[in-house]
Amino acid sequence: GNQVRAVSMSATDGLMRGMAVVNTNAAMNVPVGTITLGRIFNVLGEPVDSMGDVSTAAEGTLPIHRNAPAFVDLDTNLAIFESGIKVVDLLAPYRRGGKIGLFGGAGVGKTVLIMELIVRPMQAL
Predict the structure, then answer these.
(1) Which of 30, 41, 101, 109 has the most crowded CB, counting CB atoms within 10 A?
(2) Residue in 90, 124, 87, 80 with CA at minimum distance from that of residue 109
(3) Strands (E) located in the chain
(4) How far apart are CA 90 and CA 111, in angstroms?
(5) 73 — phi, psi (to 5°)?
(6) Pairing relation of β-strands 61-63 and 80-81?
(7) pLDDT digits (tens, 9 = 90+) for 49-88
(8) What secondary structure letter does DSSP report for 63?
(9) CA-CA distances (angstroms) from residue 50 to 30, 41, 54, 74?
(10) Is 93 in a helix, a strand, or coil?
């Protein structure tokens, strides 16, 4: 019938039962490419880091749900993720593209370390 079940990704102020809606027939898209490096986005692909809008003219956007890349397109070279933090790079190096986990009690710096792993490589560019 004429029923829609959806999850709102933003505020629903003023939305009420029986309102007319428009089907865009499009997936949710987010910016991609080098313009996104060092930026912080929300789930809708909107920048939330107070560094201005993102121009998607050069590299465009891609849908959040798409097929995985072909196996032949994947990079199989093993490389170390150079964080720029001497203790991490020397004592517990992370593999680029791998998964890592941090364990520790309250107040030991897990969040600080993750934030540094995000920010430091961008500062090196």
Answers:
(1) 30
(2) 87
(3) 29-31, 61-63, 80-81, 94-95
(4) 20
(5) -90, -10
(6) unpaired
(7) 888 888 877 788 888 888 888 888 777 788 888 877 788 8
(8) E
(9) 17, 10, 11, 33
(10) coil
Give me 11's structure tokens. 């505020």
Q: Which of 84, 97, 90 is nearest to 123 (CA)?
A: 84
pLDDT-above-90 percentage for the chain: 1
At residue 9, what is the residue type? M
Q: Which pair of tokens denotes residue 65?
A: 């749900």
**Contact indicator for 29, 62 with CB cutoff of 8 Å:** yes
Tokens of 36: 């996104």
Q: Is the pLDDT of residue 124 over 70?
A: no
Cα 92 to Cα 8, 9, 13, 71: the distances in Å are: 41, 38, 48, 29
CB 75 within 8 A of CB 99: no
